[in-house]
Design goal:
The chain is an alpha/beta fold. The chain has 13 helices and twelve strands. A hairpin with a 5-residue loop joins strand 2 and strand 3.
């Protein structure tokens, strides 16, 4: 009897171990994202130098790309790049899980964090302003301003009057002044000097030939000269003042009343809209800069490192980045909400911060700038 019970116990034990083994084979232990063999991560990118730059054959480079590829190498993730033409398109693809991760200089905001997940920030940035560099173009601006205001036509009329007055004065003095030069070129030069002296200073040293009558005539011409000088001075001053008011943008405080270029779906677009400043949205700088140079917009507001890199890399465009950084923000990689990639990628970003890898990558693209 005792032997029968032992046989029954051993049979039951063998059955239990066999069942557990079968269950273990049917339901293997869950693997982390970095251990899943055969998984290829779709990486959405938005071209934004120097963080993401497009090369040939769908290759990409830049600071954000270097950071991501270092993360991927340490976590064992295979990936393919999927480019998007706008930030808003990249964000929409992230929210809808069309891609597994968004890689670019993507600003972390509370509104975005409600629908997508972010890594630890890997870059501190903010917004700045880019305008056309007007240094050295003062005369051109003044000439265009005088022309647009109609003053050049007035100056042309004054020139005709000066020439006619010079001729009339020459004929008059040749007849009544015995000391007046009789050679035409010398006489015209003498008369032109007197007329221009009246126009530019309101004064002249002309000889009085007719007593008190001559004094009255001289006084009349002096009044005409002073009026002419006042007109020229006031017209130039008014145009220069208008140029200063309409073109000088040096800070955020100068933007109200102007039209600003921003990128579609960017933080700058939202920020400028909240301030009530008129704006026009563009896909990127290749669209916004021509609009700025053509006068369709007065300035471009975007991420400071993007504008600074463009200005440094394209000196022939004659742009200028002005003012200090405002609306400071941070960049991070983004994932669909509750993505299983968020934690391992964030941990690797933190490790890169702690071991100095991020600082080395940043120095590669921005030098020793703070």
């Amino acid at each position: 009897m005792r032997r029968s019970w032992l046989v029954l116990v051993w049979a039951l034990a063998i059955w239990c171990f066999g069942t557990v083994g079968a269950v273990a084979q049917q339901a293997p232990a869950e693997q982390s994202p970095t251990q899943q063999s055969g998984r290829v991560v779709n990486v959405g990118v938005y071209v934004s130098p120097p963080f993401v730059m497009a090369g040939k054959d769908r290759t990409f480079s830049g600071m954000a790309i270097d950071v991501w590829e270092s993360v991927a190498a340490h976590t064992g993730l295979a990936y393919r790049y999927v480019p998007y033409p706008t930030i808003s398109g990249l964000l929409d693809a992230t929210r809808s899980s069309q891609i597994d991760i968004a890689v670019t200089n993507l600003t972390i905001t509370r509104e975005r964090a409600e629908t997508i997940s972010y890594t630890q920030p890997w870059y501190d940035a903010g917004l700045r302003i880019m305008v056309v560099n007007n240094a050295g173009s003062g005369f051109s601006d003044l000439f265009n301003g005088l022309r647009d205001a109609g003053h050049l036509r007035g100056y042309a009329s004054l020139l005709v009057i000066v020439l006619l007055a010079t001729l009339a004065l020459t004929l008059f003095d040749r007849r009544f002044d015995r000391d007046f030069p009789q050679r035409w070129r010398e006489g015209i030069a003498e008369s032109l000097f007197h007329v221009v002296s009246l126009v530019t200073s309101g004064k002249t040293t002309r000889k009085n030939l007719f007593g008190w009558h001559g004094r009255l005539i001289a006084a009349f011409w002096m009044i005409c000269g002073v009026a002419t000088l006042a007109y020229v001075t006031s017209s130039v001053t008014s145009v220069m003042t208008a140029i200063s008011l309409t073109q000088n943008i040096n800070s955020l405080a100068d933007l109200p009343g102007k039209t600003v270029g921003v990128f579609t779906g960017s933080v700058a677009e939202r920020f400028i809209g909240d301030l009530g400043i008129s704006s026009i949205s563009y896909d990127d700088l290749t669209d916004a800069v021509p609009a700025l140079k053509a006068g369709h917009i007065d300035a471009i507001v975007a991420d400071a490192p993007i504008l600074e890199h463009y200005d440094h890399s394209n000196p022939e465009q004659k742009m200028a980045v002005v003012g200090s950084i405002f609306h400071p923000d941070k960049y991070g990689f983004a994932f669909p909400y509750d993505s299983d990639l968020t934690t391992p990628v964030t941990l690797q970003v933190l490790e890169m911060q702690e071991d100095g890898t991020l600082a080395i990558i940043k120095q590669k693209y921005f030098g020793n700038s703070p």
